[in-house]
Amino acid sequence: MSFSKKLMGGCLAAGMITAAGVVGASVTGPVEVSGEGAAAASLSCPGGMTRLGHPFDAGMSIFPGDPAVHVRNLYTVAVDFFKVEDIDMGTHAGTHIDVPAHFLDEADDSDDARTLDELHADEFVWPAYKIDVRGMSFTDNFVDAAFIDGYVATNGPIPDGALVILQTGAEEFFGLDGPGDAHDTEKYKNKATKEKFVLSANTDDMFEFENAGFSGPAVQHLFDTYGIAGVGSDAYGPDAFGDDFFDATYTALANDGIALVALANLDSVSVNSDIIMAPAVNLTNGSGFPTDPLACHGGSSEE
Questions:
Q1: Can you give the pTM of this predicted structure?
Q2: In the structure, how many helices (H) and strands (E) does the chain have?
């Protein structure tokens, strides 16, 4: 496949967008990418691009009970002439994508329990639709179908195949840069000794924030009525605080959709004129993996 790139002002430092996914991009000005061949696609981002992933480090927030994240330098340029990091983590650490196999048993639901390596390239790219619920109150924290329909009536339609994202305000509680506990506080030490795994220092603050989330029926409504491809949130899932059944995530995955969670920089994303790309490592039989999603602002694409 051959590619052409056209720069239209601003500064650009970008890799290629290929049929296999996205390879590192950092853009401060508009970019247009086109391709040729059987899997050709074109992408235009007149508003530039933004990274939507939180920093990946040992102080990041992780789901309670998941393995702690450890990052260390195994080799360094000063000593070894090259640098290599050794990383320990769970597959759902930080900003990450959930695929059907995360909640569904492939043996029992072979048609609806696809693993990460079974998704196609175009299933990591979506038109975005953002629903901003910051400062709003909902019964049991559930964003329901009626609210969604009203939001659409006011703010414009949900594109076919969209990733519908809730902006709840949770991103400010992620990691050590938020109002979390430092590793050396007594509260953190007491928490760490009681848990199976050492949790990130900010887990308590991230998960004590009473974020709004989709109800299960609302997610089903999104799939049935609007033909979406998945749901997302700046919280650690699209689920409402207090929903111990994670009904929003389960419903999305049961519809052979995805969930993209713990998103950052959602202020940069418009209601319905951006594109989000979030390829992940092609993990065999994987239930999900960390990703650094890219928002293409004012984006348009065609195959």
A1: 0.82
A2: 6, 21
